[in-house]
Amino acid sequence: MPDNTKAMRSDIEIAQSVTMRPVREIAALAGVEEQYLEQYGNYKAKVDYRLLRENSRPEGKLILVTAINPTPAGEGKTTTTVGLADALRRLGKNVIVALREPSLGPVFGVKGGAAGGGYAQVVPMEDINLHFTGDFHAIGAANNLLAAMLDNHIQQGNALGIDVKRITWKRCVDMNDRQLRNIVDGLGGRMQGVPREDGFDITVASEVMAVLCLSDSIPDLKARLGRMVVAYTFDGKPVTASDLKADGAMTALLKDALKPNLVQTLEGTPAFIHGGPFANIAHGCNSVMATRMALRLGDYAVTEAGFGADLGAEKFFDIKCRYAGLKPDACVLVATVRALKHHGGAAKTELGKENLDALKAGLPNLLRHATNIRDVFGLPCVVAINAFPTDTAAELDTVRDWCQAEGIPVALSEVWAKGGAGGVELAEAVLRLCDAENHFRFAYDADEPIQDKLNHIVQRVYHGTEAVLTPVARRQAQELDALGYGNLPVCMAKTQYSLSDDPALLGAPDNFAVTVRNLKVSAGAGFLVALTGEILTMPGLPKSPAAERIDVDETGRISGLF
Fold it and tell me: What is each CA distance from 371 to 46, 81, 438, 473, in whole angstroms?
C-alpha cells in the first residue's frame, strides 16, 4: 500500500489516481447476476430489487460502525467502515459495504466530500458526492409533487377542509439554504394560489427520504407514502398523501430510486450506497433494501449509522432494526485521540499537540457510548482508534490501556493512510465479536406511552434525568395518541455534538433534562419525531462554504472536492 507521504494527498487526488474496475466485474464479485444489473456508465449501477425475492442465499452477519459524539476534529466513521470492509476482504472474507449517499448541502457547505477518506474511500467519489444516480432528485421531485398537489387541492375548492394554518408538509431542496426556512408563498392574486406561510426542508430531512430508506418493496413504498400526514382539517383530522391521491404518482417517480446503487471501494470491495437521511433530524441509516442486499450477497455486511451512537446507532437499533427485523452481530465504535481531547476541553487549535490530561478528561464520552452498546442494546462492541498522523504513542497507549481496563475490546485503525492493510487488527477483532455472545434488544418498547419512550431514550442512552415536554409538545403528544400514533417508535431530533440537547455540554454530562419542544408524526416512515433544542431541518452555509474551493477543468476533471 502507499506510504504516509503519499497518503497526505487530498482525498480526491487519491481517488483519481486509482484505476477503477468496470462495475460488471464488481457485480460478478458480489454475486449480482447480469439480469439484475442496470448500469449508469462504466462504474456505477443499480441493482433490481427482484434479486431479494429470487436469491434465497442465507443472510450473512451484520456489522454496524458508529462513533462517539462528533467534533470539529472529525472521527472518520465512513473511512473506518470502508477500511474495515477492505481489511475483511484481505482476510479472505466475502464482504459487502452498505453506506448512505451524501447530501449536496454538506458537500458544498461545511466539509466537502463524504465518501470516506485517504486510502479508504468509495469511488467514483465525485459522482457519489454530486448527482450520483439521481436518487435525491427523485426524492425531491416526489416531495414537491405532493406539496403542489396539496396547495392545488386548496386552490380548487378545498373539499377535504384543510386548515391552511395546520399544514405540516414542506417543500424541499438538497442544498443548505437558510433563506428558505420560512417563506410566504401564493402571493399575487386569486389565480396565483392561496397565500400562506411555508418553508423548505433539506431533502435528506424529507419524510420521503425516510420512507424510501425503510421500504422493502414497491407496494410497501406506495403504502408508506400514502400514510404520510401532510396537514390537518378544521376539525383536527389528519390529511394524508393518499387522501390527496398523490401516492401513485409519487411511487412512479421513486420506482427506480428504490433500487440500491452498486459501486466499489478503492480496493475493489463491492459497496451499496443508497439513501441518505441525516441522523440528527431523521433516522440516519442507509436503506433497508441496500442492507438486505449486502446481507444476502455477503458473508459479512458492514454498514454505518450517522453521527454519534446516541443518534444514528440508537435509531438504527430502535427504528431500522425494529421494522426490518435485523439483528446486528457486532458493533464498532470509532474514536480519535483528537476528538477525545476536544471532549476533554482542548481547543480546536491545540488538538495536534500531545495533551494527556485533556485526553483522559474526554474518555468518559467514549465509555458512555461503549457501555450503551454493550449494556443497553446487548451487543458486543470494539473501539476503533482511528489514527491521525499527529497522535503520539503515549496518547494511543492511553486510549488502548483505558479501554482494556474497562473491559472493552480495542483495536488501532490506520485505514486512512494504509487502506485495508491498516485495518487488519480491527477486522480480526470484529470477526471474534461476530462469534461472541449477543443479547440484542431495543432501548424501549414501542407500545409504551410517548412520555415513557422519551424518558427511556434520555435516561438509558443519554444518561439524563428526563424528557421535559413544553406545553405545546404535551398537547401534541395527547393529540397524536388520540389519533392512534402513540405506539410508534421515536426519532429524536437532537444536536449531534452532545449527549444532551445542549451542544456546549461535551464529554459525558450528568443531571440534565432534555426539552422536547415539538412532536410530530411521520406516519409513512412509521415513527414520531421529537424536536429538541434548536435543531433545524434546513441547514445554512458557513461563512466560507466548501463550494468556494470546488472547481472543474476543461476536461471535466473536478478538484477541491475534499
Answer: 38, 21, 14, 31
